Amino acid sequence: MMSTDSSNQEINVSDLLLYINCPRRVYFVSRGFELFSEVTASRLERIILKELSLNYPEIVKEYSLNADNLHKELEISLTKVCTDLPLLFPRELAGVTKEILEEGEARARAKLPEIAANLLGALEEFGKEPMLAALTPVKTEPFLSSERLNLKGVPSKLVCFEGVQVPSILKPGSCPQQGVWASDRIHAAAFVLLLEAENGKEVPFAFVEYVSFGLLRRVAVRSSDRREVLKICREVKKIKDGIMPERKEEKFCKECNFSEHCISESSLMSKFF
Question: Is the CB of residue 175 less than 8 Å from the CB of residue 215?
C-alpha cells in the first residue's frame, strides 16, 4: 500500500463526492489506489455523452424548431466526439478494445432521441436566449481554490446567467423526476462556496446538467447545503490524516475496486480493537 503525508493536502471537491458515496473510498484514493481499474462500455457511454453536452450551445444556437433537425445535429456531433475521443483521453483509452468502443458509442447513440426531445421541450418552454445563457460557458473547467476553506476543485464550466456568474456541473448518470440528487446538491454547493471565495460575491444558485437526458436543473443553494459541505470537509480531513472510517456493508460493495483491501484492513483493525 502507498502511504502519503496528507496533513497539508488541500481537500478536493471530488473527495467530498467519494465521501458521500463511501467514506472509505476517500481513505484508499488518498493513499494512491486507483479509483477506476478499467474503462467499461457503460463508463465510455458516460464519457461520450459528457463530451457531447459541451456541443449543446453550438447546436442550440443553430437550431430551428424541428425535432428531426435537432436529432440529426446531435448525431453529427456525437460522431465527431467519438472520432476525437482517443486524442482527448489517450491514457484512459489506451487499452480499450474495439468492441467496447463500439458498444459505448452505440449506448450513447441510443440516448439521442430522449436528449433531443428534452432539449426541444426546454427550448419551447424557456426560449432560445435563456437556454443559450445557461448552457454556454464563459470558462470551461476553471481551477478554483480557497485557502480559508482548504478546498479546491474544477467545475465543468462557469456560465453567466441573469447577470451572475455561476457554476454548472455535468452529470452523466441517472436523473431524478424533479430537482437534483442530494449528492449533486452538495457537489454544486461546494463550487458555489469556492466561486464566492474567489470572486467575493454571493452566488445564489448553480446548474446541474444531466447530460444523458439533455436536462438542465437550476439549484438554489441553501444554508443547510453549505453547512453540509463544511461538515464533510472536516470529516475528509480526518480521513486523509489517517483515520480509517468504519466499514459499512452496502449493495455496491461487491463491485467496488477497493473491496479486497477494505475487508483486509477491517480484519487487521479488528485484532487491535
Answer: yes
- Other Cβ atoms less than 10 A from the Cβ of 23: the count is 20
Summarize pLDDT for 140-179 with one digit per residue, the tens: 999 999 999 999 999 999 999 999 999 999 999 899 999 9
Report pTM.
0.87
| pLDDT (tens digit per residue) in 24-64 | 889 888 887 776 667 899 999 999 999 999 999 999 887 66
Give the length of the chain. Answer: 273
DSSP for residue 3: -
Q: Which of 179, 206, 180 is nearest to 193 (CA)?
A: 206
Instruction: Name 139's bridge partners.
Output: 158
Q: Which domains does the chain have, with CATH numbers?
A: 41-227 (3.90.320)
Q: How far apart are CA 210 and CA 213, in angstroms?
A: 6
